[in-house]
Amino acid sequence: MAKNDSRKKRNWRDKYRFSVVNDTTFQEIWRIKLTQYNAFLLITAIVLFIIGATASLLAFTNLREMIPGYPDITMRRNILMSAIRLDSLEKELERRDKYFANLNAIISGKEPAGSYSAGDTTGYRGEVTFRKTPEDSALRARVENEEKYSLTVGSVSSENQTNLASLHFFPPVKGIISGKYDPRTRHFGTDIVTKPKSPVSAALDGTVIFTGWTMETGFVIQIQHPNNIVSVYKHNANLLKETGDKVRAGEPISVVGGSGELYTSGPHLHFEIWYKGSPLDPEKHILF
Q: Domain range holding 199?
């Protein structure tokens, strides 16, 4: 038994010669001497090299696209674009829901969701008695004198005013009217064609309640004014204000453009006026 084990060990250490001989001249062209141990290491190294080279080719070259079931460049590009469009659609749906929520809140006389009003943290103070003082009278006289030439004089202090004739609407743009107000076709505003990239001005003092982009009307901005008046500006190239910003009459709020994919035929402004939830004809209040 010991002889067989020693013979196996000798066979493992024995050297073997591998040679290439010319069959005609019997000249030895190439030869190599290896033991069984060295031959095993050589074969293992060759196998590992082949596996590593194959993995590298599949990982860093286009050969991986030849694997059955692996997506090609076009398919991966379509998957990426679909993911981007899905993300844009989710954001668009969020903006649409916010738009309708703010619009419903305005129509029902509630505060828009985007606005913030801090609560009274001072606690209960009991009954408050207001007394007229000379300082109050002087302040009132000074404020009335400063607002004598204000564009919205007389409209800020009276929330129940129903006569809009006393209001002076600042024209958002100057141009040619291409589409008139027509509630029968659900066209609740006026289309004004003007120079591209012209500034769009606020019609009255107010607060921006919505800024966003819709597929139909592109970049849109809405402003809440006193006396339950809302003005809407659509198809802008870009917006200069954000939700919650305070604006003055005549202040630039956006830039004329032709954004939107359904209801636009070129650079123009679609302007709407809403009073207590009902649309008004802008041409009856503004000279464009």
A: 164-284
